[in-house]
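JOB MANIFEST
job_type = single_chain_structure
chain_count = 1
residues = 153
[input]
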Amino acid sequence: MTTSDEPFSRPRRRTVVATIGGAGLAAALTACGGDSDSGDDSTAPAGAESSGGGDGATGTVLARTADIPVGGGKIFKEEGVVVTQPTKGEFKAFSNLCTHKRCPVTSVEGGTINCPCHGSKFSIADGGVEQKPATRPLPAAEISVDGDSIRLA
């Protein structure tokens, strides 16, 4: 039993779990904010000036347009996104976490983004469910295409 007169009370389980979860989220956000692309950043200042992105933040270069196959896509695990090219010159991005049980997707084949955990499949064009058990589409992610660079917005 906890009373306000006790000088040292044990933390509640909910408090411990919330604190640990918050620390994990902070670590994940810190990891996502780092500068890991030293080779591609040499062109960032010119792209930032020509894109008119407001504060100059154009995002991390994920890939070159030639790296994303037409009718397919590529998964970027560390960034948590899948970039697809449903038709030539049209690029889309989605979360890489399945909306069924939050498993990471592992392949893009046959016009779908595929989750290995329970077999859910999502459209490369709009992230919509093509095969259940998932019932919600993959959330869209923001990217920008500047020349031949695809950047996470």
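[summary]
Residues 21-57 have pLDDT under 50 and may be disordered.
The radius of gyration is 20 Å.
exit_status = 0
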